[in-house]
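Project outcomes to date are best conveyed with an example. Our students and postdoctoral researchers have been running inverse folding experiments weekly, and each run begins with a structure described purely in tokens. The record below, which covers 380 residues, was selected by the lab manager from last quarter's runs and is presented without edits.
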């Protein structure tokens, strides 16, 4: 096993495109680290640089304390699991899993021992003589995992390994991979664009945007203490609702709505006192809004209902709030709300609101998030 250290890692392509900017953090020995972000954010590029499949334009990369900038992929003691599984179609499961050991020239007894152990762990024992064409997507993914496991590498690298699976199988496989990683206790770096996948699997998550690392933290801290507007909106599903607001003393004005912020909020966000009597960005997660007719609150706003999605255990209620809406990805995109910029709230299934209603919305004011409009960073 080994930790991975990234020191001011940069990637600049020949056309002067700067894909990664000063990536700088450590991945601990035995840690499950997830790189997450939208398409084109640089997460797969970072993974490929760790694997040695992309050259490093600047900075220093260490695996197990050894600088590997110029080390060939085969000598980095890592195993990679690809999105496409990359299985040999003409070989059996047994032959696919054993292939890297054969190439390494290991004795037959050692190959058989490692093969049988991996097959047992991944529940592939009864499938060893089948070829990939006769396997389901989940079974193929387990074979690809088995081929990585038998090598007993210092680190696993996984590039969106579940993206080819259907939704139900993805949920099953992400639990299996997370359990397997904890059982093996091998340093694992996992790339995904799915923030739910990142939150449920990673010990820590690195959120990236435009080649720049936004925040590295535990899933819970990313949710409850995001560093900036982008992280706040990217983590959580549905996304956080973001609006321009004005804080005057303890009174928050959101469009044509005003309510008092509890003193406790100013106690655990002391910098918020300095933000009084000025404009800021307020964030409200969907789960912190409900139908005031069912769950009254001291903080309530009115909003027109545009759509209700009944999901059985809850209702997703789309709302037009009369306040300037803030785009999480574009600092300059602050515009009056329109039908395509509706807020989303998680209502109790007992709510009777319908599209076209003007509803009273109960807001959990202690769970609000506040950001500086100039830097778009959190106010703590």
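After processing, the design step wrote out the following sequence:
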């Amino acid at each position: 096993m080994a930790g991975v250290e990234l020191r001011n890692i940069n990637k600049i392509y020949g056309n002067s495109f700067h894909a990664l900017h000063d990536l700088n953090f450590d991945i601990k020995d035995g840690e499950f680290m997830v790189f997450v972000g939208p398409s084109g954010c640089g997460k797969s590029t970072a993974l490929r640089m760790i694997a040695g499949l992309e050259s490093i334009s600047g900075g220093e990369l260490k695996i197990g304390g050894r600088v590997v900038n110029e080390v060939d992929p085969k000598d980095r003691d890592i195993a990679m699991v690809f999105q496409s599984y990359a299985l040999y179609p003409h070989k059996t499961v047994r032959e696919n899993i054993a292939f890297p050991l054969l190439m390494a020239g290991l004795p037959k007894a050692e190959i058989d021992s490692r093969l049988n152990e991996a097959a047992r762990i991944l529940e592939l024992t009864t499938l060893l003589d089948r070829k990939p064409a006769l396997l389901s997507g989940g079974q193929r993914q387990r074979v690809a995992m088995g081929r990585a496991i038998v090598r007993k590498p210092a680190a696993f690298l996984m590039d969106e390994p579940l993206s080819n699976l259907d939704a139900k199988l993805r949920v099953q496989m992400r639990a299996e991979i997370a359990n397997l990683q904890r059982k093996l206790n091998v340093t694992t770096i996992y790339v995904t664009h799915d923030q739910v996948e990142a939150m449920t699997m990673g010990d820590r998550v690195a959120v990236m945007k435009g080649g720049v690392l936004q925040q590295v933290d535990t899933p819970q801290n990313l949710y409850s203490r995001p560093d900036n507007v982008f992280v706040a909106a990217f983590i959580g599903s549905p996304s956080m609702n973001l609006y321009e607001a004005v804080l005057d003393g303890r009174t928050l004005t959101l469009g044509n709505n005003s309510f008092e912020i509890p003193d406790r909020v100013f106690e655990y966000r002391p910098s918020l006192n300095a933000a009084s009597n000025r404009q800021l960005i307020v964030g409200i997660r969907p789960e912190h809004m409900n139908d005031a007719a069912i769950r009254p609150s001291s903080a309530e706003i009115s909003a027109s209902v545009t759509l209700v999605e009944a999901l059985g255990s809850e209702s997703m209620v789309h709302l037009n709030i009369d306040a300037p809406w803030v785009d999480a990805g574009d600092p300059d995109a602050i515009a009056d709300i329109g039908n395509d910029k509706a807020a989303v709230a998680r209502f109790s299934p007992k709510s009777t609101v319908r599209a076209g209603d003007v509803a009273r919305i109960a807001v959990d004011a202690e769970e609000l998030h506040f950001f500086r409009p100039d830097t778009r960073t959190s106010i703590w």
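The chain has a mean pLDDT of 93. The longest strand covers residues 300-310. The training component of this project remains on track.
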